[in-house]
């Protein structure tokens, strides 16, 4: 039996166009707000979605390997009644085996729902050493007015309840964007 194979040449092209941005001026935006991370009560903004099956006893609220889903309000002040300007949605993972050096890895989108940045957000993907008084996390992107953002957020703990894990965090953000 003889088989014939016909090979037809295939020519493929792709479309590419490089454009020069209209404005090469980088903007710097400074933001200040409070994230209310509440794990307890009737309407928590953060819930544990997974815990590690550890053999050693760990009495901390969020032991090593705990995964938390969050949809926390961003407010103008530390008071629970202050105006909501947005929300932070994402995940954080308790990543420190040493409870005295409690650290999380944070993956979250900080979206604004009012004001001049309504509809815009920035993304954080960073290690957050919670037990340090002053700490910094990396901003790795954004959308809307913060498209292609990069920068950092300085965080201070305004309030923390070691029994419930509830926290109010003071965020001072510096964004570089176009």
Provide a descriptive summary of the structure in words:
Homodimer. Belongs to the plant dirigent protein family. This is Dirigent protein. Keywords: Apoplast, Secreted. The protein is mostly beta strands and 178 residues long. It is 0% helix and 48% strand. It has an eight-stranded antiparallel β-barrel. The mean pLDDT is 89.
Gist of the model:
This is Dirigent protein. The protein has 178 residues and is mostly beta strands. Helices cover 0% and strands 48% of the residues.
Give average pLDDT, whole number.
89
Helix content: under 10%
**Coarse morphology:** globular
Strand order in the largest sheet:
1-3-4-5-6-7-8-9
Main sheet, how many strands, which sense, barrel?
A: 8 strands, antiparallel, barrel
Ends distance: 66 Å
Low-confidence regions: none
Structural class: mainly beta
How many individual helices? 0
* Helix-strand pattern: EEEEEEEEE
Q: Beta-strand percentage?
A: over 45%
What radius of gyration results from the CA coordinates? Answer: 22 Å
Count of individual beta strands: 9
Task: Supply database-style keywords.
apoplast, Dirigent, single chain, mainly beta, eight-stranded antiparallel barrel, 0% helix, 9 strands, Dirigent protein, Allene_oxi_cyc_Dirigent, 178 residues, globular
Question: How would you summarize the topology of this molecule?
Answer:
Elements: E1 27-37, E2 46-50, E3 67-75, E4 84-94, E5 104-112, E6 121-128, E7 134-143, E8 150-160, E9 167-177
Antiparallel strand pairs: 1-3, 1-9, 2-3, 3-4, 4-5, 5-6, 6-7, 7-8, 8-9
């Amino acid at each position: 039996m003889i088989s014939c194979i016909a090979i037809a040449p295939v020519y493929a092209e792709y479309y590419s166009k490089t454009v020069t941005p209209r404005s090469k001026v980088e903007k710097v935006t400074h933001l200040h707000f409070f994230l209310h991370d509440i794990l307890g009560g009737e309407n928590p903004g953060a819930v544990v979605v997974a815990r590690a099956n550890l053999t050693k006893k760990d009495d901390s609220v969020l032991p090593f390997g705990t995964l938390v889903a969050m949809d926390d309000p961003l407010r103008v002040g530390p008071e629970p009644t202050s105006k909501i300007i947005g929300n932070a949605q994402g995940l954080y993972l308790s990543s420190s085996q040493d409870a005295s050096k409690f650290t999380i890895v944070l993956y979250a989108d900080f979206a604004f729902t009012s004001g001049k940045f309504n509809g815009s957000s920035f993304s954080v993907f960073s290690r957050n050493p919670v037990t340090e008084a002053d700490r910094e996390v990396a901003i790795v992107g954004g959308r809307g007015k913060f498209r292609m953002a990069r920068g950092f957020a300085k965080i201070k703990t305004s309030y923390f309840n070691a029994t419930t894990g509830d926290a109010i965090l003071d965020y001072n953000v510096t964004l570089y964007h176009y």
